[in-house]
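General statements about sequence and structure are easier to judge against a single worked case. No coordinates are needed to read the tokens, only the vocabulary itself. The sequence in question and its structure tokens are set out directly beneath this paragraph.
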Amino acid sequence: MLFYLQANNPNLIRKDREMWNITIRALVHLGAILVVDVFFHFLYILTIPNDMKLVKDLSDWSLAGLAYSNLVYDWVKSAVMFGVINTVSRLDHLDPPNPPKCITMLYVFAETHFDRGINDWLCKYVYDYIGGNHDGIFKELVATICTFSITTLWLGPCELVYIWSFFNCFGLNFELWVAKLFSLPPLSTIEGLMSEAMSRRIRGLFNAVNFWQIVLYNVLALNSLDFAKFVAKRLLFKGFPVSTLSVLLVTYCGIQLVKERERKMALLEEPEPSKPKTD
């Protein structure tokens, strides 16, 4: 419906500096295309996980970086595909959907998607339709099961897709379970006594663990089950405590920076309070 209204709008007027913004977006996407080309030809991040003999010789940090880079690559690929189409659409006075959120900016499963169009459709007709405000544990469970059942059929049912769907469905529900647990006393009372900074730090620790859950669960779909199991074993067991805590510390610092950026953006978007009129 929105596309129909935009495509049939007779009053086509460019906003201020709109062509400048479109040009900048096009240059950014051109740079992203070059980055993807470099990833393909020189970094071998997609082929290295298929050689388990080589993977076993990598250090813990190299292994973590390889798993993370695979998700970054997939996001860049999606961002380029959506970005080029979005740029052309804006030239035709259309307002296309936003590209997927960068994996570096993610720390909750609810925002994890690489195809915004399919994600918006699933949220509108399945996930939000069944789950409502997503506060009820049972409704959320039914909503996520139905959503990932449809996603499984869309991706093509197979063992790897079943495992990927199960873990991502679990991740969405686990977030709600933890949030419900911390909203109950005595945990809610303890958090209420903390300063805002301390509460943010503790939540950041959980978000850091959540980030690596997102990485491990989605590496399944991008590479293989063997690679995902090997990364999890090295980072959680063989690399504990030095590698595990070091990776979580770096992730924690990155998440705090992301949260601070989101907080500043939210403050900028807030309307300024109206000043009282003076005679």
The first helix runs from residue 2 to 7. Residues 16-267 form one domain. The mean pLDDT is 83. The chain has one domain: 16-267.
